[in-house]
Design a protein that fits this description.
The protein is mostly beta strands. The chain has one helix at about 110-120, and strands at about 5-15, 15-25, 35-40, 50-55, 60-65, 75-80, 95-100, 120-125. A 6-stranded antiparallel beta barrel has the order 1-2-5-4-3-6. The protein has a two-stranded parallel sheet with strand order 7-8. Helix 1 links the parallel strand 7 (about 95-100) and strand 8.
């Protein structure tokens, strides 16, 4: 199991929830529906890893959707395992896509919206969240 290093470069507060930009190698950026397990080795109070899903993806890292641990601040070094999970794969013939966000955040679905719009797919997004 490969464990590589990343870091928190920015922390945001949106609608009362914490998000964090994670700078990491491209191999650690989770695709839509996949996640990486991350922990801060220096944080003795949080020995368990946190599953991070991408809300936004860039070439240098990703914006982790909530929840993000409150102890993580800009500059926090992270240990990251390679992405896990099956992920979401949209068939090429898809012309219409309906997404439903249930829970605390719709952020985990945002990479699917971006990918669908790039493929000129019509998207209907249902949520009661802000």
């Amino acid at each position: 199991m490969d464990i590589l290093e990343g870091s928190v470069s920015e922390v945001r507060l949106e609608y009362g929830q914490r998000l964090a930009w994670i700078d990491c190698p491209p191999a650690l950026i989770p695709a839509p529906g996949r996640y990486v397990m991350a922990w801060a080795p220096e944080d003795a109070d949080a020995p368990l890893a946190t599953a991070l899903f991408a809300q936004e993806i860039s070439t240098q890292g990703f914006l982790a959707a909530p929840p993000v641990p409150h102890t993580w601040e800009p500059g926090t070094r992270l240990a990251l395992r390679r992405p896990s999970g099956r992920g979401f794969h949209m068939p090429e013939m898809t012309r219409r896509l309906a997404l439903v966000a249930i829970g605390d955040t719709a952020g985990r679905l945002m990479p699917l919206v971006v990918g669908a719009l790039e493929q000129r797919v019509a998207v209907a997004f249902f949520t009661y969240l802000p």
